[in-house]
Write a structure and sequence with these properties.
CATH topology of chain B: Rossmann fold
CATH topology of the largest domain in chain A: Rossmann fold
Number of helices of chain A: 23
Oligomer: heterodimer
Structural class of chain A: alpha/beta
Distance between the termini of chain A: 70 Å
Strand content of chain A: 5-15%
Number of domains of chain B: 1
Largest sheet of chain A: 6 strands, parallel
Strand content of chain B: 15-25%
Distance between the termini of chain B: 59 Å
Number of helices of chain B: 7
CATH superfamily of chain B: NagB/RpiA/CoA transferase-like
Order of helices and strands of chain B: HHEHEHEEEHHEHEEEE
Strand order of the largest sheet of chain A: 1-10-7-4-2-3
Largest sheet of chain B: 5 strands, parallel
Shape of chain B: globular
């Protein structure tokens, strides 16, 4: 699936080619944001919870090494086998070696954005091992040979008629079927067989409790539990930032996660796995993959507080109108745009520019990450490091020179007004000026306010 | 070794210590916990039934699911029947389990592997019936963890309604992989 990276603006242009579909995508996500607002407003202490969640995460990050060691010791005492992966390749090798030890051929996986980030599926498929994604949305995109376009709603970009066609091809459902109930029940039957036959289950982790070594996984479908309980071996993959110090802290995060993500009071299942069941085996793979580097970047470290609720995606005017795939990164949207440059500045230099800096992401963030501020700061870093296209850098420099001098500003304004009156077509030429693509200019005034004031204001 | 590398990098790059906050005793505003619980459960696609202590559950379950053939009932069912049915857990129609407590704000019910008999039962069954004492209702999740937070079971789960998905165009479908319905009996003493 590794192909040449198409810059966000270019991919967004393709997405925008179908206005009716864009509007549908936009409205669907805005509805999720609306449900979130409604349910959040029912909790009088919501802002206090945000502060608490943020402080708990900041505290954990400030002692991350100690909490990781505490978690490892507790998990090992529980009979869990703990692995450490420095990067994505390391993670994939570790998971593969566990599968090999058990001679496992049938793998079920519940939602894990970490395994998407590490491209685990293509890696295992190259070794001849089939991984079945069991979250309905993830199964849909997997059958369609795509990546999830949203961290919580993986198939939010696909219409039900298209799901019908995908299922018709792969699961043999009736052609032309588009009823969500019919399609979901077909997937239920199909995936039940996979659960019952699986050798090993892979799950993600929502929270890892340092004091007990327990991991908590939240789903609505129950797929993580069906997988983990039916297979002989459970492998849970987690980034180092999933840690929280104590069990009681779960109360804060479980109150916030589903409310902020989808507007539900809580997910149907919040499962606490501490010890494997008798006769079963449990592994936890702790993954860094750039996270300790991000921890060292003062301006960006608090992005590691993220609990992956997806609210910043739902609220983002750019995400809603450009679609998750335009971000060419496992995690899309505003949070993806501040995490991705840490992984690869060259490849992801365009993402912090995929924002209006309106700040709505920051307003809805349950752990108070200053997302829009970090987007702005990434722009500075990426420009300084030379990852921003020369034309953008040059025009920004010219703009800075004009705006920093009143004389140059006044001179430029005068000539711009004349120029726009004489040659309006040049400024609106969509090839010469990308700004004119979806915009019209008003008729330029004959004089600036300053000029008008000098003529009229001074006399009175 | 990746372990030492990661820990060394975390040690090197972590910010200055930040204190851990205390969680205040947040109250749940609604006085009627049962009403909150029932409303939250209904919103999640489940249903609450209030029954007097001593009322047999088994006939009520049979009445709710008249078509069900294989009912595993760990509350007031036949132990021998249960043992026989759980040999083939994928064929079970209804599972009846006793939960430890219920949470008013979100209708979550806490069960551990001791309460489930087998961890997979509440997920693999076609329909789930949970029974709790009405007196175990607490207001919010902070109150819940204050009660069960120190248990540290090998496995424990908050269940708040039947299995569901909205992954196809945000249309809610009840019965994704797990139970297609959930009924809760609250016993009033």
């Amino acid at each position: 699936m590794e192909t040449k990276t198409i810059p966000h603006a270019e991919a967004a242009t393709k997405f925008l080619a179908n206005p009716a579909r864009v509007q549908w995508h936009d409205e669907t996500l805005w509805f999720v944001r609306y449900k979130r607002d409604k349910i959040v407003n029912e909790i009088p202490e919501w802002e206090q919870l945000r502060n608490l969640a943020s402080q708990i995460k900041e505290h954990t990050l400030s002692q991350l090494d100690q909490y990781l060691e505490q978690f490892e010791a507790a998990a090992q005492a529980n009979g869990v086998i703990v692995h450490w992966a420095a990067d994505a390749a390391d993670h994939n090798r570790i998971v593969h070696s566990i599968l090999q030890q058990h001679n496992a051929r049938k793998i079920v996986k519940s939602k894990s954005m970490l395994t998407e980030e590490c491209h685990l599926n293509p890696y295992l498929e190259a070794q001849g091992i089939e991984v079945v994604d069991t979250d309905l949305g993830e199964r849909i995109v997997q059958l369609n040979k795509e990546m999830p376009s949203h961290i919580v709603l993986p198939a939010i970009h696909i219409k039900k008629e298209e799901v019908g066609e995908i299922f018709h091809q792969h699961l043999g459902t009736e052609k032309g079927a588009s009823d969500p109930l019919y399609l979901a029940l077909a997937a239920r039957e199909h995936l039940r067989q996979k659960f019952l036959a699986a050798d090993i289950a892979i799950t993600g982790v929502n929270f890892a409790v340092a004091e007990t070594g327990a991991i908590v996984v939240c789903t609505n479908e129950g797929n993580a539990d069906l997988g983990a309980h039916l297979a002989k071996v459970h492998i849970a993959c987690m980034g180092i930032e999933k840690l929280i110090p104590r069990t009681e802290h779960l109360s804060v995060f479980l109150r916030m996660l589903a409310r902020n993500a989808t507007g539900q009071n809580i997910t149907a299942y919040s499962s606490h796995f501490r010890k494997p069941a008798p006769g079963q085996e449990m592994h936890i793979v702790i993954v860094d993959n750039g996270r300790t580097t991000q921890l060292g970047r003062e301006a960006f470290r608090n992005s590691l507080k993220c609990i992956r609720c997806g609210a910043c995606l739902n609220t983002c005017p750019v995400y809603r109108r450009s679609g998750g795939h335009s971000y060419h990164n496992a995690t899309a949207g505003p949070i993806g745009a501040i995490l991705a440059p840490n992984l690869d500045m060259r490849k992801n230099a365009d993402l912090p520019f995929a924002s209006t800096l309106c700040g709505s992401c920051t307003d809805v963030c349950p752990v108070k990450i200053d997302i829009h501020n970090q987007l702005y700061q990434w722009r500075q870093v990426l420009t300084q490091e030379g990852y921003v296209p020369a034309a953008k850098t040059a025009s920004m420099k010219a703009m800075a020179s004009v705006l920093s001098s009143p004389a140059r500003y006044s001179f430029a304004g005068k000539w711009a007004r004349k120029f726009l009156r004489w040659f309006p077509s040049l400024a609106l030429n969509k090839r010469l000026n990308p700004w004119a693509k979806q915009r019209d200019l008003p008729t330029p005034p004959k004089e600036s306010f300053r000029e008008w004031y000098q003529k009229n204001g001074g006399n009175q | 070794m990746s372990r030492d590398k990661i820990l060394a990098a975390a040690r090197q790059n972590k910010p200055a210590p930040v204190p851990l906050p205390e969680i205040p005793a947040f109250a749940w505003p609604a006085e009627d916990l049962l009403a909150s619980f029932s409303a939250a459960l209904e919103k999640s696609g489940g249903k609450a039934n209030l029954v007097k202590a001593g009322t047999p559950i088994a006939p009520a379950v049979k009445a709710l699911y008249p078509e069900a053939q294989r009912i595993v009932n760990y509350v007031d069912g036949d132990t021998a029947v249960n043992e026989q049915l759980v040999q083939d857990p994928a064929a079970i129609d209804v599972v009846v389990l006793k939960g430890q407590l219920g949470v008013a704000e979100n209708a979550a019910i806490w069960l551990t592997d001791w309460d489930c008999a087998n961890r997979v039962l509440p997920f693999l069954t076609q329909h789930l019936v949970l029974v709790i004492d009405k007196d175990t209702l607490v207001g919010n999740m902070h109150h819940a963890y204050a009660v069960m937070g120190q248990q540290n079971p090998a496995y424990g789960v908050f269940i708040a309604g039947p299995s569901k998905t909205a992954d196809i165009e945000q249309s809610l479908v009840i019965g994704a992989h797990g139970p297609r319905s959930m009924q809760v009996f609250l016993i009033e003493r």
